[in-house]
Write a structure and sequence with these properties.
alpha+beta; RNase_H1_N_sf; two-stranded antiparallel ribbon; RNase_H1_N; coiled coil; Ribonuclease HI, Chain A; Ribosomal_bL9/RNase_H1_N; 6 helices; four-stranded mixed β-sheet
């Protein structure tokens, strides 16, 4: 196997960073039992382990670059920015978005690790509910989750009401049928009584 060669079942972080999947070989690094890592993380760890044992500096440098790319991408997943001033204050997913809105102006902003942190700060310093939230982040906000839960609760309540109405209708039908049965039994008893009257 050559570094950079596209290998089936390999991790490809960039055009130049491709790594082999050693998971089904004896070359794989044994991770502690109590740890759970993703397939991508496993491939990066295995390749670092192989590079170390082969004493291959180029492979080791490629692994370190791969880890850098992976960590950079992973950190970007949850990162967001709060713009406190400017033409459109709010929460933005990327630095590029903040730059596009603040170009040519002095703006106050801050980077946050999670949407929850960003929203707490935005709620404190901006008018709650009246600031921009990047569409990609909107579905991750606690309010979005609460709204979705509220919708599901309302739908469930409607279904429950419909079921209760159906149960009431069925109970009414049962009562009418019981009344009809009682009436028929009374008529039947009356007919029997008339048939067996002594002369």
């Amino acid at each position: 196997e050559h570094l950079g060669e596209v290998i089936p079942n390999a991790l490809k972080l960039t055009e130049k960073l491709t790594f082999s999947d050693y998971s089904k070989t004896s070359w794989a690094f044994k991770v502690q039992d109590n740890l759970e890592i993703t397939r991508t993380e496993k491939i990066l760890v295995d390749n670092t382990w192989v590079a170390f044992h082969k004493k291959d500096r180029k492979h080791m440098i490629a692994c370190l670059n791969g880890l850098s790319v992976y960590f950079g991408e992973k950190n970007q997943e949850n990162r967001c920015y709060v713009l406190f001033s400017g033409t459109q204050p709010g929460i933005y997913k990327s630095w590029a978005s903040v730059c596009a809105v603040t170009k040519g102006t002095k703006a106050h902003y801050k980077k946050y690790s999670t949407i929850e942190e960003a929203q707490a700060e935005a709620d404190q310093y901006l008018k709650k509910g009246q600031y921009y939230i990047d569409p990609e982040l909107r579905e991750k906000t606690p309010e979005a989750n609460n709204l979705e839960s509220m919708k599901k609760i309302k739908e469930s309540e409607k279904e429950l009401m419909n079921l209760k109405k159906q149960v009431l209708k069925i109970e009414e039908q049962i009562m009418r049928l019981k009344d009809k049965i009682d009436q028929l039994e009374a008529e039947n008893q009356h007919l029997r009584d008339q048939t067996f009257l002594p002369e």
